[in-house]
Amino acid sequence: MTSSLPPQAAPRFTLARLIGGHICLHACMAGLRMAAPLLALKQGYSALAVGVLMALFALTQVFLALPAGRYADRHGLKAPVGWSVLAATLGTGLAVAFPVFPMLCLAALLTGGATGTTAIALQRHVGRAARDATELKQMFSWLSIGPATSNFLGPLAAGLLIDHAGAFFGGQAGDLSGYRTAFLLMALLPLLTWWWVRRTPELPTVAVAADAGTRRAWDLLREPMMRRLLLVNWFLSSCWDVHTFVLPVLGHERGYSASVIGMLLGGFAMAATLVRLAMPWLAAHLREWVVISGAMLLTALLFGLYPFMPNAVSMGVCSVLLGLVLGSVQPMIMSTLHQITPSDRHGEALGLRLMSLNGSSVLMPMLFGSIGAVVGVSVVFWTVGTVVGLGARTAWGLRAGLPHFPAGKTTG
């Protein structure tokens, strides 16, 4: 492992605060990501336009991921989180004041960038605090509960407010005041993130290699394990993108309310949370490559079945099963990444991972929207499921082992 910090460097209450902060900021984006497309559809925009809107949640992260990773390597935890809180609050606040499509696009850019920057800072901090490979998997399992929980709370809270806040204020269910109320709640959540994180002690700085000024992030790609891991991570991330984007469109086509759609997304997220709650105790008995390759095969099967589900209940069952499968993967991905990366480049490696994922997430929703508009959303499920199933062979190749790089050593 790349860290030798004493046990007290990562006390349980500190990790709990980081998880709480992660939940609040990520729930802001998750709620907005569910509510904004529904408002756009309500205002008459097409599935392709909604795809563009969804892609904007990832666009900022494509350009910010590497600079954010380097910034975290230099400044630690609190500085990047503070800027992220400001950006997320501003973006959702603008959506409250001006709930029109261009402002929703700007809010997507700001909240997406804020969430990515915060994730890099938190993951780097937790990865450095772990003392061995088993604890690394355990700590990332605990940290991964944050996004899974927020993916349940954010959409569910937004859906309930959209359906009921309008009537409470004298309007109608699902009217514009309901959307504004949902956006207002999302704007307040990042402030709680800062309340959780600001008291977290920074970890000691890492000695930087002598060639730090001349090396580039792309040098990390010279390591075959890094390339393989990023490809596998891209396959699995595409599955999250498909489910997040296609489910609201499919639910809208079938006439489901915002609350029902929020519950379906929430069931997926809750299942991912439950499986991650078990991961810290299972970490010592799990091999990364077994979990990842098995998850890819099961995801391919569930994606094949999903479009045949006849009602909201059966779709909910599929959504929960998919959450259990995909929820088990991220701790294994993050554990592998930290073991194959030099300790003074963890932030940079996390930024490279996030950039590769979100570069895909910018294009994929637009592609999904185009395909869905022409041949239907079922084809999107089947196409991505086939690709992920075939990609399981790449994940199986991770069994070759996890090399260790001493601090300061560059890959390649």
What are the main properties of this structure?
disordered C terminus, disordered N terminus, mainly alpha, 412 residues
Describe this structure in words.
The chain is an all-alpha fold and 412 residues long. The protein contains 13 helices and no strands. Helix 3 packs antiparallel against helix 4 and helix 5 packs antiparallel against helix 6. The chain is globular and about 55 Å long.
Task: Kindly report the average pLDDT value.
Answer: 81
Counting helices, strands and paired strands, the structural category is: mainly alpha
Relative strand content: under 5%
Number of strands: 0
Q: Can you write the helix and strand succession as a string?
A: HHHHHHHHHHHHH
Global geometry: globular
Rg from alpha-carbon coordinates: 20 Å
Low-confidence stretches: 1-10, 403-412
Major β-sheet profile: none
What is the terminal-to-terminal distance?
19 Å
Helix content: over 70%
Write the layout of secondary structure elements.
Blueprint lengths: L11 H31 L4 H29 L2 H20 L3 H29 L3 H36 L7 H22 L26 H30 L4 H25 L5 H18 L6 H16 L2 H10 L6 H30 L1 H20 L16
The gist of it:
77% of the residues lie in helices and 0% in strands.
